[in-house]
Each structure stands twice: as C-alpha cells, then as structure tokens.
From TrEMBL:
Residues annotated as transmembrane: none
SUPFAM superfamilies: Chelatase (SSF53800), Thioredoxin-like (SSF52833)
UniProt-recorded name of the protein: NAD(P)H-dependent oxidoreductase subunit E
CDD domains: TRX_Fd_family
Organism: Aminobacter anthyllidis
Length: 239
C-alpha cells in the first residue's frame, strides 16, 4: 500500500498521498483522515483502490464521514470520493497489459500429497459476530468490523480476559438497528454501533463482563428503533 501511496504522490496536482483501510488494517481510514486534517490540507480526495466497489460503498462511506465530522470538535477540510477502479476507462488497457504479460507468470506447481496437520480447538470463551447483511453494510458495518479487528490485534483480545474470537455474520435479525453485532456467550445484541461503541463494548463487556446498556437491545417481543444515543439515558422506543 505504501508503494501505491508513493506512486500517487508523483501524480500532477497531488501534494501528499497516504493510505487507510476501510476494513481490517492500520492505519484505518479514520486514523489516516485525522492525520491529514492535522496537516492543514484544504482538500482531500479519497481514491478507492478496490475491486469490486459495491453500489452501496459511496453511500455508507459518506454517512460515516459525516458522523466522524460530527463527533470531532475540530473543523474538517473538504472531502471528496473519487470513482472506483471498475469505472475507469483505463481499466481495459490495464487488464490487457496484465494478460499480455501472462507468459512470464510462474506456473502453478502440481499438488503434492501432504501429511494432514491437526488443529487446536479455540479456548476463547467469547465470540463477537458482526452483521454483514444489506442494511448493516449500508450503515457502515465494514468500518465497524475493521475497527474491532484492529483493536483485537492491538489489545491482544484473543489471549486477554476470557479470550475473544471475532467473525463476520450473515443477517443477525434486527436490521433497523444497523449496524448490529452480537456478543456471546450472553447473546447480547448491540445496535447503532460506532467505533466509540466498539471501544466501550471491549472495555466493559468483553473484558469487564458487563453489557453496555447504552447500545444494548433486549428481546422484548416488540419492534424497536435506534435510540438517540447514550445521552438519552438508554430509554427504549418501541413500535
């Protein structure tokens, strides 16, 4: 990624280039943007270097950018999002060049019979599932997943406390509470999850053993909508 950033820095009209990840990886996109903001740049262009770019990508990234700006007390520069690689008219030429160079590619070696390797059954007692259903993806679940995985690595959650394993999941059910995750063994549902919510869930629930009621939703048998946030005192709205 640094090589791509160095290449982008040589392009006309580019004063500085850096990279960030929307999923697992450091720096995260938010961390990269905060660093750029501190550099007093007046205009930032986000260049998505991924294939494919899902139709909802720009929508959920825009929502997340707005949320970050609201959560931050300092002013932000003008931020724009460029088209993805798949929309570039240069993509066919690039693919043709790669195909033309295929003769120099190393052949895949034949499969050798290997001695089966055993696997350890995980000792971790906690599991965190992050919903990847349509509504959750549209609400920025990829960013939530990336922050959780980065914090899992930074804080060594697999071997800290009861030990925590994390995984992506298909739809977890309460779609209107997106983005949603669920913590086991309690089965606690969390809705409207942000990076700040992830940090509290890690500290208070995964390591402290106490559910974070500001973001938790109980199976009441009634339809629920997202609360406004911790400032509301955690009161429930139902339909």
């Amino acid at each position: 990624m640094q090589r791509l950033a160095d290449l982008a820095a040589t392009l006309p009209g580019v004063d500085h280039a850096s990279f960030g990840f929307t999923e697992q990886g450091t720096p995260s996109l938010r961390e990269a943007l905060v660093t750029l903001r501190q550099g007093e740049f007046s205009d930032i262009l986000l260049l998505p270097l991924m294939l494919p770019v899902e139709p909802s990508f720009t929508a959920w990234l825009t929502k997340s950018l707005r949320r970050w700006q609201v959560e931050d007390d300092l002013p932000w520069p003008h931020v724009r999002i460029a088209h993805g690689l798949a929309e570039s008219p240069l993509l066919p030429a690039l693919m043709a060049e790669l195909v033309a160079g295929g003769d120099a590619a190393s052949p895949v070696p034949p499969l050798e019979k290997l001695t089966p390797e055993g696997s350890l059954v995980p000792a971790q007692k906690r599991r965190v599932l992050v919903c990847q259903g349509g509504p959750c993806n549209a609400a920025g679940a990829d960013l939530v997943w990336g922050h959780l995985r980065n914090q899992q690595e930074r804080l060594k959650l697999r071997v800290t406390g009861d030990g925590t394993m994390t995984a992506k999941s298909t739809c977890l059910g309460p779609c209107n509470l997106a983005p949603v995750l669920q913590v086991f063994p309690e089965g606690t549902y969390y809705g409207g999850v942000t990076e700040a919510a992830i940090d509290r869930i890690i500290t208070e629930h995964l390591l402290g053993g106490v559910a974070v009621e500001d973001f938790a939703y109980q199976p009441t048998g009634r339809k629920q909508v997202l609360r406004d946030g911790p400032a509301t005192g955690g009161g429930e709205q139902a339909r």
